[in-house]
Amino acid sequence: MNTTTSKRELPRLGTKVRAVRRRAGLSQAELATKLEVSASYLNLIENNKRPLPAPLLVKLAQVLSIDLATFAADEDARLVSDLLEAFADPLFEEQRLTSADLREMATASPGAARAVLSLYKAYQSSRAAADDLSSRLSEGEDLVDRSHLPSEEVSDLIQRHMNYFPELEDAAAELVLRAKLTTEDLYPGLIRHLEKSHGIRVQIAAWGDEKGTLRRYDPEQKLLTLSELLPTRSRTFQLAYQLGLLTLGDRMQKIMGEGYMTTPESRSLARVALANYFAAAAIMPYASFLKAAQSERYDVDVLGRRFRVGFEQVSQRLTTLRRPGAEGVPFHMIRIDVA
Length: 339
Description:
With 339 residues, the chain is mostly helical.
């Protein structure tokens, strides 16, 4: 007897089976008849009390004329990842949806999850269009109340500095030296530095236990909580981002200057943008990143693997290589809807 095969766990796809059955407008008894199994057995499968055998999975796909990819785990992972990215938007902060909620949505109602993503993308497009319209109008006459456009004020701040902030680059370089950070030891190194220099503990929350957001900092307990669903590169970025918020208040205020940020919302959004800049500069130090970019002919994939960051993080960092005397190619980054 092959013990390895006998102990191998078959996939439990009950939620998906129930979802595709309902979309087909069939009762459990009707689908059971088509699959030539008992209704009670199908009920056990749908409630994840029995695994879904491969032959029955194939037959189910044939009977309902659906693609087997519908049941792929990596498809779920991609959908959950897209939902996590969307719901990280401050727009949803008050809803306090957990990663468990998003995983359940992706598994139980993938169609509804994709519809939510489509709505979010439409919202992003509308917001971008509104900002663009406001920018166009303000070029001619002061027809728009700029105090209601925090994103435009932050955009103007970045443009004034040509997306290069030497104060933040210096702070990032200081952090790398002080904490003795290397690419290979970046994540644990940042955790050690947070605890040693600032008394801040970092905990990774299990997706089923954490009822808060993907990242939460408790200043009273000096506790930074990160979701286990965040990949290591995202956790590393969040650690550096938190350090930026904690330590760079004076430098950020100097950058923002007097009179440029007219509302609390503008100042808050600017702090987020500047802390993100600092985090990227700490993870991808200017000199070593520029040297790597030039030697690899600005290959985003290679740079991402070398510095252990994502495609968008590399792309964003490439737009900041504006140091006088050590400039990189003057890239600009545009986010667009897939449609």
